[in-house]
């Protein structure tokens, strides 16, 4: 497992712990999906609902795989063990990545505009300089948009234990610029 992957997981655990109590709970995922949906008012309800379902499946996979005592709480150590094990988490990450990236395609063009991308990732809690660095790494076109497929692939890469030196690392590094 690469150090970069562990670092990415630490960052996202902290962000998903939306209420800051040190553990992940169902309510954290509800709060996070509400923040992201609010950041993209132009997204249609079908895409917002798919994104919310992606967050729900993410939580349900964690709870089903890790919450042996059924207390509804996941610690960092439990979280790392699951999300960095593709065989346990690949389906949930796939749905999450697809629904999240596709929600940003507000006009059905297969592209995501920078303001939408920024709003969604700010809704998650990432820092603007890191968001901008990732957007640039994903190769925006002349209209300052990125391909949904490229973003979806990079979300999947974010959770890959064998990946390092990838654009997604920009979100987990110290603030860029």
Automatic annotation (TrEMBL):
The molecular function GO annotations come to: calcium ion binding
> InterPro entries this protein is in?
EF-hand-dom_pair (IPR011992), EF_Hand_1_Ca_BS (IPR018247), EF_hand_dom (IPR002048)
Residues of the EF-hand domain: 4-39
Q: Which domain of life is it from?
A: Bacteria
Tell me the Gene3D superfamilies matching this sequence. Answer: EF-hand
Q: What is this protein called?
A: Ca2+-binding EF-hand superfamily protein
Species assigned in the record: Streptomyces candidus
